[in-house]
Amino acid sequence: MSSSSTISLREALKFWTKLGFISFGGPAGQIAVLHQELVEKRRWISERRFLHALNYCMLLPGPEAQQLVTYIGWLMHRSWGGILAGSLFVLPSLLILIALSWIYITFGQVSWIAAIFFGIKPAVTAIVLHAAVRIGKRTIHNNALKWIALCSFLAIFILNLSFPIIVLIAAALGYWGGKRYPDYFQQSGHSNKSLAHYGAAIIDDSTPTPPHAQFSIQKTVLHSVVALCCWLIPIGILGLVFGWKTLYPNIAWFFTKAALLTFGGAYAVLPYVYQGAVDHFHWLSANQMIDGLALGETTPGPLIMVVAFVGYLAGHIQHLIGNSDPFWFGVLGAIVATWFTFLPSFFFILVGGPLVESTHGKLGFTAPLTAITAAVVGVIVNLGLFFAYHVFFPHGIGGSISWLSIVICGAASLALFKYQKGVMTVFGGCALAGLLSHLAGVLLG
Hints:
By secondary structure, the protein is an all-alpha fold. The chain has helices at residues 9-22, 26-41, 47-59, 64-107, 111-139, 143-157, 163-180, 217-242, 247-261, 266-280, 286-297, 306-318, 327-357, 367-392, 403-417, 423-444.
C-alpha cells in the first residue's frame, strides 16, 4: 500500500511547513518531535522503518534531522516530496536568521542588546560543553574510544591539526579497529530492540517498498547528474559574476567541504566552520561566531543553520564600504552558504535511499562512524574551551577576568547538567542576567 494514496502531498506539506517553525531543541529534540508526530500520533511510518531511516541518516555527514525529514518525504511522495520536505524544514530558520543577522550587525552595539549577548555568550560555552558530554555518554563506551577522543582533543588543542585530517585519521582507525577488534567499535546508538507498538502505520514494517524507492541505475545516474548541475551551475555563475577568488565562490566551496566532512551531528560542523570562517578566511571574529551559535540555538531548524549567520556577516561586512545597502550582499552570502551546505544532504537521500530500503536491518560499516564520533567529542571539548577563553578573558590572558561571565556560565551548566533544563530556558535566563547586570551598572554608575 502506497502512503501517497492515503496522505496527500498537500497535507504532508502543511505538516512539513509547521515542523519548520516548531523544530527547536537541536537534533535530539527535532528527532523526538518527528517520532512523536509521525510514529506515535499520525502513524505515517512504523517505528522500525523510522529507526532504520534514522540509522542511515546518522551514518551520513550533515544534519541528521533534516535528512530524516527528507527521507520520509521522499518515501511518501517521491523525489519532489523529499526535496520539498527537506527545504521546508530549513527555509523558516533561514529567513529568521537573515533577519536576526541584520538586527545583530545593525544594532548589536546598542547597549541593552550588547548586554543580552553578554549574558548569552557564557550560556553558549556551557551548551557546547554539555553537548560534548551528552554525545560522549551516548557513543564512548570503552577505553579505545576514550583514547580516540583524547588524542583528537590533543591533536587540535596542541598541534592545531585541521578538522578534516582528524576525521580521516579517526575513520581509518575505525575501519582498522572494526576489522581487528569489532567489539570495541560497535555502535551504541539507536537499536531496533524493544520497539514500542503504536498500531498499524501507513508505511508499516511489512509495507512493500514503493516502486519509486526501489534501486535503479538509471535513477541513480539521473539524480547524480542533477545534483552535480545544482552544484556546478550556481558556483559557476558566482565565479563568473564576482571572480573565482572572491568571497562568494569561497563561501560555496568552503561550505561544500563542511557538508561532506562533518560526520557526527550538528556540533561536529562547528569546529570546522570556526577554523575556516574565523582563523583562515577572517570572515568574522571569534566573539561574533559565539553570538552566531547563540542565534542558531534559539531559532527553529537545524543547528547547522549557523552557516547562514556566517554567510550573512561575511557578505555584509565585506560590502560595508562603497555600497549604500550591504544588506542584500549579506542575504546572498546567507543563501549561498545554506545552498551549498544542504545540497549534499538531498543527494545522499535521493541516491542512497533506495539502497537503504533494500537493506532493512543490514546496515554495516558503522565502525568508522563510531570512531569519528568519538573524535568529534574531543574536538567539541576543544571548541568549548576556546569559547570559554574568549568569554572569561575578553581582553586576552593578560587582561582582566570577567567574573560575571564565569558565574553565568556556572549557573547555565548547573541548569543543563543537574536540572536538565532546555536550551531555550537557559538562554532566556542568561540573557536576563546580562540585561540585569547592564541595568545595575547604569543605576549604580
